Amino acid sequence: MRVLAAMSGGVDSSVAAARAVEAGHDVVGVHLALSTAPGALRSGSRGCCSREDASDARRVADVLGIPFYVWDFADRFKDDVIDEFVDAYAAGQTPNPCLTCNEKIKFAALAQKAIALGFDALATGHYARLVDAELRRAVDEDKDQSYVLAVLTAEQLQRAMFPIGDTPKSEIRAEAARRGLAVATKPDSHDICFIPTGDTRAFLGARIGIRPGAVVDADTGVRLGEHEGVHGFTIGQRKGLGIEAPAADGKPRYVTDIDPESGTVTVGSAAHLDVWSITANRAVWTSGEVPDGTVEAMVQVRAHGGLAPVRATPTVRDGVPMIEIALYEPLTGVAKGQAAVLYLPDAQRGDLVLGSGRIVATDSDPRSGARRDTSAAGVDA
After folding, report:
1. What percentage of the chain reaches a pLDDT higher than 70?
2. What is the mean pLDDT of residues 21-37?
3. Which residues contact residue 323 at a Cβ distance below 8 angstroms, ignoring those fewer than 6 apart?
4. Where is the tRNA-specific 2-thiouridylase MnmA-like C-terminal domain (predicted)?
C-alpha cells in the first residue's frame, strides 16, 4: 500500500512513519510548512513548523530511507485555521484549533492531495486507534487524541492510519531511540502551534484590536469592571477578570457568559457554570450512519476533560446536521466553539467514538437535562 506519512519533526510522527515502513508499505514522508514566516528554532516545547522541525523530519526520513518532501500549506492554514480561530474568539467562543486543523488541513487538504497523487492512506502520529475502521481511544489515556479526531468522517477514517495508538508514549520514545532517531528525546509541542509565545490574549489582541465592554455580575447585573475585548475571556475563567473588589460572599467569581454583540462579560459563582443540555452543530457520525433516534452515550467537551453520561439526539435545523445532548448530571465550564465528542458508554466499548459536533448553545435549566429511568416498568421518573 502506498502511504503518505505526515512528519512534523517530532517523535510521534517519526515512529509512526517508521512503523509504516516496517509494515512493508511504500512510504513517502511529507512535512507541512504551515507558517508564512517559520522561525529557525523552536522555543523549547512551544510552537512547531519551524525550519528546525522540517530539518528533524528530513533527518528521520533519511534514516528510514524514504523519500521526503516539504509541502507549503501556509496560506490554506492561515485561511482555514488561524483566521477561523481569531473569528471564533471575536465571537465569544473558545475554539480548539487542532480540531479545525484535522478537519480542514491534515485529513482534508493534505489527504485530498495524497489521493490525487495515488496514495492509499495517510499516516500520522496521533494517539488513537482504528479497529475495523472504527475510531477508538489510544491505549495511553493520558495522550489520547481521539477527541480532536472525532471530526473525521467515515470516508476520511478509511484512508487514515494511526500506527502508534496501541503504545504508551514512554515506549514510543524508547522505540525511537532503538531505531536511532535523533528526535527520541525531543520535547513534545504544547499550547497552540501558531502562538509560540504562549500568549494567546496578546496574539488575539494584535489581530482583533480593542473592543471595550463591561464586566457585570450574574445575580445583580451590576457593572463590576471594564475589559478591552471579549476575546480575552472564556467560560469558566477565574483569573484576569479585571474586577477590583472581591465578591460580597468572598467566594471566587468565574466567567459565566460572553455576549460578543454587546461586549458584555458576565461573572458569577461556580453554581452559574452548571450546564444541563448542549446543542452542537457540524455534526459528524464517524460510522457514516446517523443514529435512528436518541442514543445513550458519554460526552467529552474538552480535549482533556472527563466523560459524562448523556442522551444524544441527532436533528437537522435549517439543513444543518445538529446534535441535542441532554445530561444526567450538570457539567461546568462548557464553552461554545469546543467540540462535544460522543463515546459509547463504558459498558459498551467505552473507547469507541460515535461522533461529534461543535457546541453552539448550552442550557443551565435542570429541566433541559436527561432523566433517569427509575421505574421497573421503564417509565421516566
Report:
1. 94
2. 92
3. 279, 280, 283, 312, 313, 314, 315, 340, 342, 355, 357
4. 278-359
Q: Is the pLDDT of residue 375 over 60?
A: no
Contact 311, 332 (CB under 8 A): no
Binding-site members for ATP are: 6-13, 32, 125
Is residue 205 within 8 Å of residue 232, measured between CB atoms? yes
- Provide the mean pLDDT of the chain: 91
pLDDT of residue 280: 98
Q: What is the pLDDT of residue 248?
A: 73
Q: What angle do the packed helices 83-90 and 200-208 form, to 10 degrees?
A: 90
Smallest Cα–Cα separation from 166: which of 15, 349, 25, 298?
Answer: 15
101 is catalytic: yes
Instruction: Return the amino acid letter for 350.
Output: G
210-268: which CATH architecture? Roll (2.30)
Of the candidates 129, 97, 124, the residue with the CA atom closest to the CA atom of residue 110: 124
**Residue 146 in this model has a pLDDT that exceeds 70:** yes
CATH topology of domain 2-185: Rossmann fold (3.40.50)
In the residue annotation, 193 being an active-site residue is answered as yes
Answer CATH for 273-368 from 2.40.30.10, 1.10.20.10, 1.20.58.1000, 3.40.50.300: 2.40.30.10
Predicted local confidence at residue 38, as pLDDT: 60
Integer distance in angstroms from the first to the last C-alpha of the chain?
A: 55
The rounded distance, in Å, linking the Cα atoms of 222 and 216 is 5
CA distance 73 to 84: 16
Weakest mean pLDDT among 138-147, 190-199, 225-234, 316-325: 190-199
